[in-house]
Specification:
- With 421 residues, the protein is an alpha/beta fold.
- The chain is built from 13 helices and 15 strands.
- The protein has helices spanning 2-15, 34-87, 95-118, 131-145, 167-185, 203-206, 234-237, 255-265, 320-333, 343-352, 371-381, 395-399, 417-420; strands at 18-19, 22-23, 127-129, 150-155, 163-165, 190-201, 210-211, 218-227, 269-275, 279-286, 312-316, 336-340, 357-363, 387-391, 409-412.
- Helix 2 (34-87) runs antiparallel to helix 3, helix 2 (34-87) crosses helix 9 and helix 5 packs antiparallel against helix 8.
- Mean pLDDT is 78; it is low at 1-16, 249-253 and 297-308.
């Protein structure tokens, strides 16, 4: 009897509507947690996307800084190699080795360019371009770059809007994606399709891809490269844009990271779809540009170099190697040369010989007074002095700070003597 009373008490606690031996009603409470679960899933997605963005930004800053410093070192290597080549007779046994040094340094400079591209600072000459024409002009190179068992297919939308982009870097992306597609197909038969078009992007789609922070909903130009190759699983897809992650042999891996940086630098984004044993599709999204596209084969600011007429050039750079090799080049051209170890030293030396200096070669990034501040101080002393900016960063990144101030020009590190002349 006692046990039965305990059980009855427990039942009354649960139901609160029972009489011994007789049920007169049941009370229940139901709560719909679907919204709560969806909110938690959305929060998890947003946190993951935020972590990915922060990771890419941190890696981008690191890559850009490394590329800048490495370009300073390469200026010494490539510059000295070009000086040696100019002074050696063509019949010299050492000429072959000098050319190999130049070739290796140039390849290293290309790698730095990819690192700058990954950091989003790799856009150089931006023009209105027609993606269809760019792809058609690159077709021959594409055909030479892929496996003989892979076939190229083109689905290019007619009357495609123009986009503001750097043609050279967009070609680099197309080449990189097509070569990756060919390698995914391997030794078997397969098809690579290049497709252009226009697509509306909404907020839901933004969560699925890799887009620039300022990317907004709307209609965008699309460039799609798909293959019928081996495809990727989810774990691989999540890492493909990480710098130096690769499923290939050692020494590869900056291509897709650089491609993402280039697209984001253009205000666009990338969406990737892939399944194992089915294939992969990379779809690039780029903003529209108003008006007609420019002709890609038009000359881009070409100028004829002239022999040096003499005069005093002031080199302002905090890297010993850069100052030394640049001084040697200018002396070979027939100039007098003075050097300064940083911005403060440069302003002081310019003040001491303000009427004698014909040109200032000015580095952008220095510890004691950077190039921008030194430029302003030098121009206060003499407003007509030509100033040529040097930087391991690309031109657009460097000269943005000097807009409207009348720079005489820009030279990208590393450079050969012919480029400086």
């Amino acid at each position: 009897m006692k046990t039965k009373e305990i059980e009855l008490k427990r039942i009354r606690t649960l139901t609160a509507v029972m009489i011994v031996g007789l049920v007169i009603g049941v009370t229940s409470l139901v709560q719909d947690v679907t919204g709560l679960k969806e909110a938690e899933a959305e929060k998890e997605r947003m946190q993951k996307k935020l972590q990915e963005t922060q990771k890419l930004e941190s890696l981008g800053i690191l890559a850009g800084g490394i590329a800048h410093d490495f370009n300073n070192l390469l200026t010494g290597i490539l510059g000295n190699a070009s000086l040696a080549r100019m002074r050696l007779p063509d019949s010299s046994p050492g000429m072959r080795f000098v050319r190999q040094i130049e070739e290796a340094a140039t390849r290293a400079a290309d790698l730095c360019s990819q690192m700058l591209a990954y950091s989003g600072k790799g856009r150089f000459v931006v023009r209105k371009i027609d993606l269809n024409n760019l792809i058609r002009d690159t077709t021959h190179l594409l055909e030479l770059s892929i496996s003989k068992k892979a076939s190229l297919k083109f689905e290019l939308q007619e009357r495609l809007p123009a986009t503001m982009a750097d043609a050279t870097q967009m070609r680099q992306i197309v080449m990189n994606l097509v070569i990756n597609a060919s390698e995914a197909i391997g030794d078997g038969q397969g098809e690579i399709t290049l497709k252009t078009g226009v697509q509306k992007v909404d907020s839901r789609f933004l969560e699925l891809g890799h887009f620039d922070d300022d990317f907004r909903e709307g209609d965008y130009l699309t460039l799609e490269v798909s293959d019928t190759g081996c495809g990727m699983d989810e774990a691989t897809r999540e890492k493909i844009f990480d710098p130096f992650f690769t499923t290939k042999f050692t020494g590869r891996g900056l291509g897709l990271a650089a491609a993402l940086g280039i697209v984001r630098g253009h205000g666009g984004g990338v969406h990737v779809y892939s399944e194992p044993d089915v294939g992969t599709t990379f779809k690039l999204f780029l903003p529209f540009a108003e008006g007609e596209a420019e002709t890609l084969d038009a000359p881009e600011g070409a100028s004829t170099s002239q022999e040096a007429q003499g005069g005093l050039v002031l080199i302002v750079d905090d890297e010993d190697t850069v100052r030394t090799v640049t001084e040697e080049m200018l002396l070979m051209f027939g100039f007098e040369v003075d050097t300064a170890v940083d911005g403060e030293d440069g302003v002081r030396r310019f003040r001491e010989q303000v009427d004698r200096v014909s040109l200032v070669l000015l580095d952008l990034t220095m510890l004691n007074m950077d190039g921008e501040e030194a430029f302003r101080e030098i121009r206060k002393l003499r407003d007509d002095i030509p100033v040529l900016l040097m930087s391991g960063f690309n031109e657009q990144e460097a000269i943005n700070r000097f807009a409207g101030l009348g720079l005489a020009g820009f030279i990208q590190k590393p450079f050969k003597s012919e480029e400086l002349r």
